[in-house]
Design brief:
This protein is mainly α and 280 residues long. It folds into 2 domains: 2-55, no CATH class; 56-276, MetI-like (MetI-like fold). 71% of the residues lie in helices and 0% in strands. The chain has 13 helices and no strands. Helix 7 (156-163) packs parallel to helix 13. The radius of gyration is 24 Å and the shape is globular. The two termini are 42 Å apart. The mean pLDDT is 84.
């Protein structure tokens, strides 16, 4: 029995190592190509013959708007993460702790609406934003508005986490004279750190990786592009060969914040997901 367990463990680890190598290979190639100092075209070898920082210098140089695009993306993601987290917490707390007429109908309606792809409303949203002056030059605040407008519909995971917190704590606080707002900010939120971090990370990721709607709203105005739209325009140029290594360098810089956040907050992220899935 012990030999079978050892053989099983060896086989499992071998499979995991092979899967890890396959999974990491594209990322290693991306990093190596971003430091390639030869001509920027695609080649049939992985390790560069000459390492250089020219691709990164180009991104931060005067001939490229990468810094502007990066800041656009960062501003959108930060504002969306903060506002969405506040809205989701308030909506989830109200649905978890309060009982009012039409509560279940409201929850079910939001769940049904959430099943429809968001891009079905792109045309209507574009015309609405255009009337408000929030397209092209105003694409950044427009994208923030659209991202946070329906954020309350993503209540279900956060509500599930709030359901795990004993209601007896709220009842004791009410007896002591605390208001609903005081209970939320002074009791519930300190006990809900994992789900708050989970909500903020998910909200941050959505605009950080957004391409479809961002390209639609900022169409034709390069100063309002985010990094996904701008780098895709590089791929579409006739000089794709020349922008290949620059594209790789930009991809590395885009991946750094998200990777750092997940590595630093992985523990809370997992706790938030598992805790919010306990109850519905």
């Amino acid at each position: 029995m012990k030999r079978k367990m050892i053989r099983g463990n060896i086989l499992a680890y071998a499979v995991l190592v092979i899967i890890s190598i396959i999974w990491l290979f594209p990322f290693v190639g991306l990093v190596l190509q971003s430091f390639r100092g030869e001509y920027g075209g695609m080649v049939n070898y992985l390790i560069p013959k000459q390492f250089s920082l020219d691709n990164y210098k180009f991104l931060f140089g005067p001939d490229c708007k990468f810094v502007r695009w990066y800041l656009n993306t960062l501003v959108i993601a930060v504002f969306v993460a903060i506002i969405t987290t506040v809205v989701v917490i308030c909506v989830s707390y109200a649905l978890s702790r309060m009982r009012f007429k039409g509560r279940k109908l409201l929850m079910n309606s939001w769940l049904v609406l959430g099943m429809f792809p968001g891009f079905l409303t792109m045309i209507c949203l574009y015309f609405l934003l255009k009337l408000l002056g929030l397209t092209q030059e105003g694409a950044v605040p427009g994208l923030i508005l659209i991202s946070v407008a329906s954020s309350g519909m993503g209540y279900y995971v956060c509500k599930g986490y709030f359901d795990t917190i004993p209601k007896s704590l709220d009842e004791a606080a009410i007896i002591d004279g605390a208001s609903r707002a005081q209970i939320l900010w002074k009791m519930t939120i300190p006990l809900s750190k994992p789900i708050i971090i989970y909500t903020a990370l998910v909200a941050f990721m959505a605009p950080w990786c957004d391409y479809i709607f961002a390209s639609y709203v900022a169409f034709g105005f390069s100063d309002s592009y985010n990094v996904a739209v701008a780098m895709t325009r590089w791929v579409w140029t006739n000089d794709y060969q020349g922008y290949f290594t620059r594209f790789c360098a930009g991809g590395i810089l885009v991946a750094i914040p998200v990777t750092a956040l997940f590595m630093a907050l992985q523990k809370y992220y997992v706790e938030g997901v598992t805790g919010g899935a306990v109850k519905g």
